[in-house]
Structure formats: structure tokens, C-alpha cells
Specification:
heterodimer, A: 281 residues, mainly alpha, two-stranded antiparallel ribbon, 73% helix, globular, B: 277 residues, 13 helices
């Protein structure tokens, strides 16, 4: 009887995710333009990726992205969450404002930054340039495009981490904190030896999710630069999308999707390992 | 928690929190003030307060982005997705929370696994399959895709609400002769309804804001969502940034109003769902 309860969820999941995912893995070994019959070509898609500098550039960009998001937003989020503990008053207000960018559609956030901040004509960067301090749009230069996009995503993202860390910090047992205070620990000592260890599971989980999400990043890159200029901000997900829908190289796109998934799988495996070790202790 | 700190610490604390507040609000403020300015004045200074109020920016944005139609599409898409996710998700969440089937562990891990899969892992065969079946430009088909993508998150969140219901309630109903279906629909569902409301809000938000799937599967102008029609307006059809910001405000405003009114639900749902998942 209860098995029937699962049928709708699992049926929808199988049709939309599981079967197409299996097909994608199979397609990675075929050449297919989406219309004619697929041709089996073995590992040729992966071999052509291995010799494609755009693919390696995209992979490196994903790794840079992961490094940026493992450090900057987690540091800002932790700092702000801690300060909200100190501030006592107004923390609910700060929390709502910091969270606000998360509910704005990525397409809109991207356009606000593009037009109102980065644009040399209508943006704040243009205003600064006209005031005598040349500030070209980071999105138009190969050396800075990726960082220009990352800044937009950081703005949209860090508040979410801050709210999560703040919620976790408030769950650290009161007695531990009081004990530390009675022992004469300063605030920063309390932070270092009581609060941070207390929320370590949350920080670990967020870091794991950050790595997984960093390999999925798509919207901001696709909207702000389409991976340009000259593929300098290309990431794996935009590369796969371009391969499939612009170059009609669906097999190659599938191969890229498989590579992205492998990174996610490896990260998840590490996480389960870590969890198991924690339980074993 | 109480920390007795020096005056200096307090000043630094509020200064840093204040700076972060300004950084967060600046782009949003630029969105709002420039939505009522003529393009020429934005070119002059995007930071300046409007000298004249061009309310017709909103009228032109509404017409050029065809929001009368596309907002309706977005609302329809969000509503269908909410109904599908809440009905199918609450059934699954109940079974998994109460471990009613032997395979509950495998299914839970599988569902968690799908949340970490890239959309590109299933997008291409799905697209060409939908194309073959004539399901491109079909809003109901897209809501099925959203349902599959958002369900795992919804199920993990709903599961925590079911776990909080005392077992005795269920057992009492069974002893009184209720069927399994009655226990679920008459006893459990009413108790977890606050959780279902939270899930509905968040799924509605995600569907309204979603970009990648909507832009891939809904290609005919009549079937665009509001976010996609905004994206196309700002990319191709208009270079008047006053109009573009007005269009952005039209799409964002319903969401921001809901968020401000129901902030606790949004924050707990979005943060809780991804932490306890």
C-alpha cells in the first residue's frame, strides 16, 4: 500500500532525470547531431575533449570558481554571522536584507550588474571613468571576465551562507559559551575554541555543497558573457550547453556533462567518507 | 546569547554590518531609482536621484516584454509546479519519514543524489525527446521537469515536518479503523500543512525565477516566462536602461513583497532544506 505512495515521485523522476541521465552517459560514446541516427565512436568524444584547450580552460575556470567560493563568501558569511551575534539588536533586520539577493532571479541580478554597475555607458564604472579614473568593464577583458561574473554571484550568494551560519551559531549550547566566558575567554577566543568547532559540521557541509555547486554554475556566466570574450570565462556547464544547442555536437556535450557529474560524484564520496569517519570516532 | 563587549567592539560590529548592508542594497537601489529615469539621465549619472519621473517606462516595459501574457505563463507554471511538488512530495516524504517501505534508505540516498546532478546530465536527451513528442513550448511539460528537479529538496524539507508528528496520533487512528490513506490524508496532512505552505512558497519562488530550463524548453514568444521575456527584452529588443530596469522591477516586485511579508518562512525553508538535507 505505502509503496503506491512513492509511485508519482519516482515515475516523474525516472522520466525526467533517471532515463535521460542514462541516455546522456550512453550518448557520450556516440556522435550525434540531435537529428540523424547516432554513430558509436567509443572514447573519441573524450579524446577530443582532452586535446581541446577550451575544455581545459573551462575546467580550470571551474576550479578557480570553486577556490573563490570556498573562501570569500564563507569568510564573509562567518564574519557577518558572528557580528550579528555580538550586535544582538537588529540581527533579524540584517538577516532579511542580506538574504534578499537570493530571492531575485539570476537573470535580473545579472542585468542590473551589467547595465547599472559594469557598463562603461550607463553604469557606475562609466561614471568613475568619466571622473578621471579609467575603470573598464571587467566583463569585456579576457583576464578579468571570470572574476567580474564571480563578483555578481558572490553578491547574490554570501547572505545565504551568513543566514545558515547564524542559525547554526545560535544552536551552540549556551552552557559551553557561558563556561568559556566564566573562564575569562575573550570574544575571539570563544569564537575560535567554542563557536567555530560547534558549527564545524555546518561549515563542512556548506563547503561540500560549494564544491558541487561550483561545477554546476551556469546562469550568471551564460547571461553575462556567454563564456566570452574568447572563451575566457567559459565553464563546463556553458561549454556543454553550447556544444549541444549551438554546435549540435550532442555526444560531445554529453561527454562534458559526464565529466561534471564525475566531479560531483567524487565530492559526494569524499563527504560520505568524512561523515563515516566522524561517526566511527 | 549575551556577550558583554566594549563600546569599541560594538562600533566596529555595526560599522562592518552596515558596510555589508550598503553593498547588498546598492544594486537594488540602482534598480529602483533608474527604473523611473529617462535613458539619457542614466547615461549622465546612474547614482543620481531622478530629476523627472518617467512612469511610462513601466508602460513601455509591460508592452514590449509582453508581460500581460508572460507573467500569466509564469504564474501558471509556478502554480502547476507547486501543486505537483506538494502532492507527490508529501506522499513520498511521509513514507520516507516513517520508513514505511524497506527500501526507504536507498530511495532517500537516490533522491539526495539527484540534487547534486548537473542539469546538463539529463537536459539533452530530454530536450530532443520532448521535441520528438511535440512537448517543446508546453508549459505543463516544463512543470513536470521542475517537479522532478525540485522534488528532492521539497521531500527532504517535508520529511522533517512529518518526523515531528507524534507516532501515537497515527497509531490511534489505525486502531480506530482508519485506512492507511485516511491516516495520511485526514491525520497527517492537516498537521504538516504549515510545512506544505513553506514548500509551496519556495517552489513557487524557484519556478518564477528559473532561467536555464525555461529558456531551453519555452521558445515561442507566446510561451515565454516573465524572466525569459525580460532577458530577451534586455538583450535584444531594448537598449533603454530605464525601460529595462522598469521591466526588472515588474518581475521582481511580486517576489520581494511576498518575501518581506513571509520572510521567516522563506528563510527557514531555503536555509533549513539545504542544511538538514
Amino acid at each position: 500500500m505505502h509503496r503506491l505512495f512513492l509511485v508519482p515521485t519516482l515515475a516523474i523522476n525516472a522520466i525526467i532525470i533517471l532515463i535521460p541521465a542514462v541516455l546522456t552517459i550512453a550518448l557520450a560514446f556516440f556522435r550525434w547531431d540531435g537529428i540523424s541516427a547516432p554513430v558509436f565512436i567509443g572514447l573519441a568524444n573524450f579524446q577530443s575533449l582532452a586535446s581541446d584547450h577550451v575544455f581545459w580552460g573551462a575546467l580550470i575556470n571551474n576550479i578557480i570558481w570553486t577556490a573563490l567560493f570556498l573562501t570569500i563568501p564563507i569568510a564573509i558569511g562567518l564574519l557577518a554571522a558572528t557580528l550579528m551575534l555580538v550586535a544582538r539588536r537588529g540581527s533579524a533586520f540584517f538577516q532579511v536584507i542580506y538574504f534578499l539577493p537570493m530571492v531575485i532571479a539570476t537573470a535580473i541580478t545579472a542585468r542590473i550588474w551589467q547595465g547599472m554597475i559594469y557598463s562603461p555607458l550607463t553604469g557606475v564604472a562609466g561614471l568613475i571613468t568619466r571622473a578621471g579614473f579609467p575603470l573598464p568593464s571587467p566583463l569585456t577583458m579576457t583576464s578579468t571576465a571570470l572574476y567580474g561574473i564571480a563578483a555578481v554571484d558572490l553578491w547574490h550568494w554570501w547572505g545565504f551562507l551568513c543566514v545558515i551560519f547564524f542559525a547554526a551559531l545560535r544552536q551552540v549550547p549556551q552552557e559551553q559559551i557561558e563556561a568559556a566566558r566564566i573562564e575569562g575567554a575573550t570574544f575571539w577566543q570563544t569564537m575560535r575554541y567554542v563557536l567555530l568547532p560547534g558549527i564545524r559540521p555546518t561549515i563542512t557541509l556548506m563547503m561540500i555543497m560549494t564544491i558541487i555547486w561550483s561545477f554546476l554554475v551556469f546562469d550568471f556566466v551564460y547571461i553575462l558573457t556567454q563564456g566570452g570574450p574568447a572563451f575566457s570565462s567559459e565553464v563546463l556547464s556553458t561549454l556543454a550547453y553550447r556544444n549541444a544547442f549551438y554546435d549540435l555536437a550532442v555526444g560531445k556535450a554529453a561527454a562534458v556533462a559526464v565529466v561534471i557529474s564525475l566531479f560531483g560524484l567524487a565530492t559526494t564520496a569524499v563527504y560520505i567518507r568524512l561523515q563515516a569517519r566522524e561517526y566511527a570516532q | 546569547m549575551r556577550f558583554v563587549e566594549s563600546r569599541k567592539t560594538f562600533i566596529i560590529t555595526y560599522a562592518v554590518l552596515g558596510i555589508l548592508l550598503v553593498i547588498t542594497l546598492l544594486p537594488i537601489a540602482l534598480l529602483v531609482i533608474n527604473s523611473v529615469k529617462p535613458h539619457a539621465q542614466i547615461v549622465q549619472n546612474p547614482l543620481a536621484w531622478p530629476e523627472v519621473y518617467r512612469w511610462d517606462n513601466f508602460v513601455r516595459a509591460w508592452n514590449d516584454a509582453n508581460f500581460g501574457r508572460t507573467m500569466l505563463n509564469s504564474a501558471l507554471l509556478a502554480a502547476t509546479t507547486i501543486v505537483l511538488v506538494c502532492t507527490t512530495g508529501s506522499l513520498t516524504a511521509y513514507v520516507l519519514a516513517r520508513r514505511k517501505v524497506k527500501s526507504w534508505k536507498v530511495i532517500t540516498f537516490y533522491l539526495l543524489g539527484t540534487t547534486t546532478a548537473p542539469i546538463q546530465l539529463f537536459l539533452f536527451p530530454l530536450y530532443f525527446g520532448f521535441a520528438k513528442l511535440g512537448l517543446i513550448n508546453n508549459i505543463f511539460a516544463v512543470s513536470l521537469v521542475y517537479t522532478a528537479v525540485y522534488s528532492p529538496f521539497a521531500i527532504m524539507l517535508l520529511r522533517t515536518y512529518f518526523l515531528a508528528v507524534p507516532r501515537e496520533l497515527e497509531e490511534a487512528a489505525l486502531i480506530d479503523g482508519a485506512t492507511h490513506w485516511q491516516v495520511f490524508s485526514k491525520v497527517m496532512l492537516p498537521i504538516v500543512s504549515p510545512g506544505i505552505l513553506t514548500v509551496a512558497l519556495i517552489i513557487g519562488l524557484y519556478s518564477w525565477n528559473e532561467f536555464l530550463i525555461a529558456t531551453t524548453f519555452l521558445q515561442r514568444a507566446d510561451n515565454h516566462t516573465a524572466v525569459v521575456s525580460f532577458f530577451l527584452l534586455s538583450g535584444q529588443y531594448s537598449s533603454d536602461w530605464g525601460e529595462i530596469m522598469a521591466a526588472a522591477l515588474i518581475v521582481v516586485l511580486p517576489i520581494v513583497i511576498l518575501f518581506v511579508l513571509l520572510q521567516r518562512r522563506f528563510i527557514e525553508g531555503m536555509a533549513g532544506g539545504s542544511v538538514k538535507g
